[in-house]
Design a protein that fits this description.
single chain; 165 residues; mainly beta; six-stranded antiparallel β-sheet; 1 helix; globular
């Protein structure tokens, strides 16, 4: 049953990916300590000198998700964020698009909360970033309308491997 769920999830996620909006994977990024906002193919990593974001290659410590997706790098949010720091900004091109985020808490014992907000700063969803047990977690939500959205940690470090909508 688990394999069937994973297969269906990948199939539906792929359909959403083809038509709905932005995509970013840490696997495509170079190591960096960001202290200003940087754009990668339309997705912005919003960092400041006081609240930076780190892009880090995992070396031999890769993460594999239950659906078989493998990640060799991560985007470290390094703590709590908001619309102006330690956030990722992306665009959904359609109403009711599914956002998929592969993520983990930076803690090995505690799950953390990833906020999804619209451009007005209104919370759309609170996603769970599972504790980092060596397996990449994933979370989803529906974005109600086309437009710009942000993800950021509610309070502590979260690692992002990939997102698409």
């Amino acid at each position: 049953m688990k394999k069937l769920f994973a297969l269906l999830f990948v199939a539906f996620a792929a359909i959403g990916f083809v038509s709905a909006g932005d995509f970013i994977t840490a696997n495509d990024l170079e190591d960096a300590a960001l202290t200003t906002t940087v754009e990668y193919d339309g997705v912005e990593l919003i960092a400041t000198s006081e609240k930076g974001i780190t892009i880090e290659n995992l070396g031999d410590d890769t993460r594999e998700a239950e659906d078989g997706e493998i990640f060799n790098a991560r985007i470290k949010l390094n703590g709590g964020g908001n619309l102006t720091s330690r956030a990722i900004k992306f665009t959904s091109d359609t109403d009711n698009a599914e956002l998929v985020v592969y993520l983990n808490s930076s803690s090995k014992t505690d799950a953390r909360t990833l906020i999804v907000a619209n451009e007005a700063g209104e919370e759309i969803a609170a996603l769970t970033a599972p504790a980092d047990n060596g397996i990449a977690g994933f979370a989803t939500c529906t974005l109600p309308e086309a437009g710009e959205y942000y993800i950021y940690s509610k309070s502590s470090g979260i690692n992002i491997y990939m997102l698409y909508c």
